[in-house]
Structure formats: structure tokens, C-alpha cells
Amino acid sequence: MPRITEVHGFVVKMDQSYLGGTQQVHLSSQRGDYVRHKKYRSSYSVKSETFLVRITTDDGTYGWGEAQAPLVPEVASTIVERLLGPFLIGRDPFDTQSIWLDGYNAMRERGHMNGYHLDAVAACDIALWDLKGKLLGAPLSALLGGQLHETVPCYVSGLAAGDDTARIKKVMEWAGQGFTAFKLPLGNGVHADGASFAAVRQAVGPDAHLYVDAHWRYTVSEAIEVGELMQPNRLGFLEAPVAPEDSLGQAEVAAALSAPVAIGEELRTRYDFRDRLVKRSADVIQPDIGRMGITEAIAVTALADAFHVPVALHLGVGLGVYIAAGVQVGAVTQNLLTMEFQPGQFDVGNVLLVEPVKCDERGYTVPAGPGLGIDVDMDALARHSTSQFALGIDDA
């Protein structure tokens, strides 16, 4: 059987930002590479940051993984270099389930069952699945039970957060290219958000799918009110209506609205999603592959299927390896509703790939090669990598 002989990690920082450098007028503060916005609770980077890992076996075959690490990816890099990577050396790369559990169990009694630690575990897990596919000469979808979707349906995200005129212009530009599903950011107040949604609906017509992301801004009563304002205009789903830790509040909003409530980008394990599903806190769940890995994502989507809850795969700040992993999982998800498509970040993400992931009005094309179906352009990686490490047999 093959054995893992090398683990390489790469901290990557691309000059184009996700939000940090594009909305300076909305900043409340900036310190170094990181900014805080007046309208967003989360911090952002002025760059597109991520962490890539490459795992290699004794015959030279390698697989790529990526953590969803938009802030201080050096943390995920250090965790893999010091804690996870040394225990991978000598392991059988086909032991994905036991390796994921080993990584999870390594810190659970210390309370690190989420956050940066699981981001690092996810990067290694994705790389191992890519590696397995390449060792077997089979696409990841085949290893996961068979492709169910020829293309992975998507919605256009990351649209203008400006006034109604700007929003409508951007939506109609994408509609003109044949896209039929869109997500709008909220944050201007309940009644302003309701009116803005109505204006976009009138412009784009009754058949488009329109989703909204509240980014945890509302109280329970406010979330219910804004949902009730939008429901008559065919609200596709209301994402992240209240604070992510408030599962009971999420359930209260979901029970009050006929339109679906979507949550999950901040969750990382089946245990997190189980509690939300049992409480009926969500009508749609949004797992993120770069925050949990492929092994756990498959468990989460199967759990959601048992509750008859559809999956809208989340896609945040990440690059090409992460995007490809999400597409591969989407291709085998029976209860798939849609997957996020962020055009600006998508273009940045493809810079590091030898052959780009493709997406158009029909959805994502599932890469057909072995494993994830992609490979990293090492010259491009060298230009954008700010630090790296290498572990081998002598380091274990």
C-alpha cells in the first residue's frame, strides 16, 4: 500500500481583496492587513488569503487541499506543520475517515472543535481525497458513490451592496448572461431591505431565484419582519438572519416564515448541524467544504437528507482547490439545491490552477480528471506564496 512521505504547506496572499480593499468608505478601522467594516461583524483582509497543502506518497503521487482561511492563514499552516502533518507521515492515504477523526479528536477535549483547527483538518482531508483519486485514476465523484449532477447549479453572489440602482444594474448584467439565481446582501434596515428586495424582484421578473444574506444583523423580531416583507415577492431563502450561536432564535424565525431560512457557513461538524436540524433551525443548510473537509461534508449532507432538508453549498473566500472540492461534493449530493458562485473571487481563485474550474449560466462544470480534477500551477503559486514548510520522513 502507498504511504505518505511528504507534507508541504503554502500560505498564499493574492493582491485582489474580497471586501477589504473594495469598500474603504465603509471601514470603521484598519490594522495592518485586516479591516473591520461598519456594516459587517466579521473582519476581512485587504488581500485574498488562503492556505494550501500538498500531500505526497512514496511513488511521487500528490494531492492538493485548501483551508477556507481568509484571515491569518499562518495559523492553519502552523497547525498542519506542528500538530497534524507529522502524524500524517507514514500513514496510508486511503485512511481518510480515521485520519479526519484523529485530527478532530486531537483537540476536542481542549475545546478546539471548530475554528482554525478544523480549517487545518479540512485542508489535509481535501488533499487526501485528491490524492486517493489520483492513485486510483478516478474522479472524486466516483469515489464518493457516483456523480448525480452533470453540472452543479449555482447562484451569483457577492453582488453590489450599494443603492437599488447599483443592485439592479448588477443583477441585470448577470441575468443578461443567462444566470437565473442571485443573492443580495442586506444591512440597510428592515424596511429599506424589504423595499430594495421588491425593487430587484420587479426588475428581474418573477422567475428568477432571489436569495438574501442578512449576515447575522437582525434580532429575531426584525428577521421575522423583514422575511414577512419579502415573502410576497418570492423570497428564495433568508440566510443567516440572527446571531449564529442563537439556534433557538434561528428556529423561531424559521417557524414564523413560509420562506426558507438558510444557515451553516459558520458550522463545521455533523454535531453542529444535527442540533440545528433537530431544532428545525433551518430549512436549507449551507456547509462549507473548506471549513470541514470532504469526509465531514459527506456526513453532513447525508444527515440533512435524512431530515429532508436541501443543501446550498457555501463558498466563501478561497481559491481554486477549495472551489473544485466544493463542486465535486455538489456533484454527488442528492439533496443539492444550489452552490454559491462569487465571480470576482472565482477569477482570483483560478489564477493558481493549471486549468481553470469553469462556471456559466448552467452551473459549475464538474472537473473530469482524477481526484479533484485540477492541478496547481507551481509558478503561479511561487509568485503568491508568502511562506511555506516541508515535512518528510526525517521530520516525523
TrEMBL record:
Domain (Mandelate racemase/muconate lactonizing enzyme C-terminal): residue spans on this chain: 165-260
Family matches, as SMART domains: MR_MLE (SM00922)
Stored Gene3D superfamilies: Enolase-like C-terminal domain, Enolase-like, N-terminal domain
Cofactor: Mg(2+)
Domain of life: Bacteria
Coiled coil (residue ranges): none
This protein's UniProt keywords: Magnesium, Metal-binding
Pfam families in the record: MR_MLE_C, MR_MLE_N
SUPFAM superfamilies for the chain: Enolase C-terminal domain-like, Enolase N-terminal domain-like
Family annotation (InterPro entries): Enolase-like_C_sf, Enolase-like_N, Enolase_C-like, Mandelate_racemase_C, Mandelate_racemase_N_dom, RHMD-like
PANTHER family: ENOLASE SUPERFAMILY, MANDELATE RACEMASE, MITOCHONDRIAL ENOLASE SUPERFAMILY MEMBER 1
Name of the protein: Mandelate racemase/muconate lactonizing enzyme family protein
